[in-house]
Amino acid sequence: LPDTTPLYSLCLPGKSSSCMAFYGWPISQCQSATTPLSVQLTDGIRVLDIRLAIKNGHLVAYHGQYPQRATFQTILGNLHAFLTSPSSARETIVVSIKQEDYDTQSPEAFSNLVREEIEAGPGGINMWFLENRVPTLGEVRGKVIMFSRFGGDGAAWEGGLEGMGIHPTNWPDSANEVFSWTCKDVLVRTQDWYSIPSFLYIPEKTQLSMEPLLPPPADVTQPVLSISYFSASSFPLATPAVVSTGFGWPSIGFGIEGVNSRIAHFLVAALKENTMLRAWTLMDFYDKPVGSGVVPLLIECNFKGNPRDAHSVIVSDPTRS
């Protein structure tokens, strides 16, 4: 892909609760033990959703109330190793950082510690793109793009709030519709409906997840970045594994097809029609079901691009209930 390519025009596969949601079954485990961060990056994951909390003066990966037994320093080491490897030194990684201990730690304390640990970690501050705008690919090869979903006044960062990377201005909790905010001149369409009532809402969640991938309405004239979370959960009837991979034998009418394979059906249909699909996407259990191939299909979307009849694909896709 050319260095002049804006990142808002790419389709990037991502992993929700990336580091490392192996623990807290059934509600907080969101990935297989066989897909640690190093494997995720090798598999093509380029958007990471990192949830952190302060423990004993250090940042540790958390998902909700469950510690995930990985320190932020370990995560930084994985990122640095990947971006300095000869085979992947021209790659870029978007890293969303979210505070999980906001009930016990102030946003300022969390923000300060994120900055301190980045400076002290592998690659240091120079490994990061920290401007509050969507860059071109050439600007960020070999770098991590900060996507700051944490608060504070930005005092710890050079440039204040403008030096904390891409910084969302609007993020309603579990909105069951696509919402928008702006990052400089870019309109950001976002879908993050994560608290679905039960597995019966998997078809509706899938439909909403697919919407941001399609081209925006014709009356939208500014550049658009779309972000879509394919992940969702609630206890006890919609655990992350059930939502993402389904259960039973849906192909013969016994069980429910999960979001991942439904998305795969949609992508296959869209690619056949040469439809333009673009978004930063985040999912649970990205390697399941075996053979669904969601990540390779998302990568392939970068090399397709005919917006004509784009919205017809969603109708023809059988997101079966």
From TrEMBL:
Signal sequence range: none
One GO MF term attached to the UniProt entry: phosphoric diester hydrolase activity
Source organism of the structure: Russula ochroleuca
GO biological process, any: lipid metabolic process
Gene3D superfamilies in the record: Phosphatidylinositol (PI) phosphodiesterase
InterPro entries associated with the record: PI-PLC_domain, PLC-like_Pdiesterase_TIM-brl
PROSITE patterns: PIPLC_X_DOMAIN
Name of the protein: PLC-like phosphodiesterase
